[in-house]
Amino acid sequence: TQIVCSGADLSAAANSTLVSTSSATAAGSDSLGVLPRGQLGPLDWWHVQRAPGVPVTLWQVRANGVLTAHGLLWAGDAPDMRDSRVDAMRAAAQQLAAIARGTTRLMGEQGGPAGLGEVDSHITYWNALDTAVRSAQARGDDATTIAATLPGVDASRTTGTAHALNWQRAWRHAEDEALRPQPRASFQRSLR
pTM for this one? Predict the structure, then answer.
């Protein structure tokens, strides 16, 4: 599939004023909260947090509905959790899914055009990765024993380097969370 943007569209974008509606709610979804968003010529944009303080910009061409999701979508492959955490990537993928409702073509970081099913497969991947890592830690498994398969995830997504690195990052974050000192309960004595 080839995506064509006419010179007129590009001229309109170059000569237009950025319209920011940064406190608007994304795509009519109450569950997303407030996302920075706006318009630039024939394009709509949203900032989605890939990690705390690390926004990615989603761009959608109004005329044909194509939505770019660089940093959030890897068509046909495991997503890349570099510089992030499982919970942040899962939340970003859920926000992408809400924004992309009604969109027929998404363009990610790599791979060809994808549909909303690809975003759903990323959400499934993040959920399965989180569950598998926490289960492995609870069993006392070694951190270097990477799950070769994840429930509900196509095996082709768990064979590459991206999955191995995601496993290590998820392991480290879950371990840090488990080992973080918990606040002590306060004790108050009665004066009676």
Answer: 0.78
